[in-house]
Amino acid sequence: MPELPEIEVLKRDLEKEVVGRRIKDAQVRPGTNAMKIVARHGRRKEFQELLDGAKIEHVSRIGRRLLIELDNDRTMVIALGDSGLLLKTSATEEIAQNTHIVIEWTIGGHLRLVDPDKKADVYVCPTAEVPSLKELQSDALDPLDPHNPLTWQHFSSLLQDRAEEMKKLMMDERFILGLGDIYSDEILWAAALRYDRKSNDLSSQDVRRLYRALVEILMEAIKGRGTSWGPDGFRDLHGDMGTFQHEIKVFERDGEPCRRCRNPLEKAKFAGSFTYFCPQCQV
């Protein structure tokens, strides 16, 4: 699943590549699978007519969702789900399997949504209704939100108000958005904190390390244009893989020496999934 850094990479790509472009034609591909993705509209024609002829004015992100604002007072909201990809292609490039939406620009070229798992959710709504959309309402932390920057003091107070194991809390999207297993494990390793340490048991120094690790890991992941884990992992708007997977220190590296203390990394079953950690230097 694309996490917060990957969605941020896509947002920045879209800002560069599609803002100012006008849509010549929007097509929901034949078959019931494509209709699952635009199911809120009921009919292909309804979705397509809301986009045809519109110009892209602005691109933003709220949590994992991308918002593409149009000049017809409407906004296209995109949630990519577990395996969705947004790809910029030429008009002549063969349409890949599991391509469900094709947007053609007046100047040529396509924006395509590809989703093997068919769990993406795409719809167009009046821009004035965006602030009231239930799925965009969240009190969870977004550490990449430039309009509401996270301070370590605020982070500390929220941690102290909870009494949960750190890995569980880092994975809880009611608390913080878009970290997932990989970034949670990497952040906790960088902060030298065990996955089962209670959040309200952290010292001021622990919180500072955790805050610094959170910011640095996410910034480095964006700089590396995301994490593409496995052959079917994330691709950016140009179809290229990210590179942050080459910087992974602990995730799925059980049995390898810790890069900090050289003791073997371990794997533990926790909260319904696996977590990876160093039993020596994460305390």
Describe the structure.
There is one protein chain. The protein has 283 residues and is α+β, with helices and mostly antiparallel strands. It has 2 domains: 4-136, N-terminal domain of MutM-like DNA repair proteins (Alpha-Beta Barrel); 152-277, Helicase, Ruva Protein, domain 3 (Orthogonal Bundle), CATH 1.10.8.50. The chain is 27% helix and 20% strand. Helix 1 (4-17) crosses helix 7, helix 4 crosses helix 7 and helix 6 packs across helix 7. The two termini are 29 Å apart. The model has no long low-confidence stretch (mean pLDDT 96).
Question: How large is the share of residues in beta strands?
Answer: 15-25%
Number of domains: 2
What structural class results from the helix and strand content?
A: alpha+beta
Radius of gyration computed on alpha carbons: 20 Å
Count the E strands. Answer: 10
The helix/strand series, from N terminus to C terminus, equals HEHHEEEEEEEHHHHEE
CATH superfamily of the largest domain: MutM-like, N-terminal
Number of helices: 7
Average predicted local confidence, pLDDT: 96
CATH-defined fold name of the largest domain:
N-terminal domain of MutM-like DNA repair proteins
Fraction of helical residues? 25-40%
Shape annotation: elongated
Determine and state the CATH class of the largest domain.
Alpha Beta
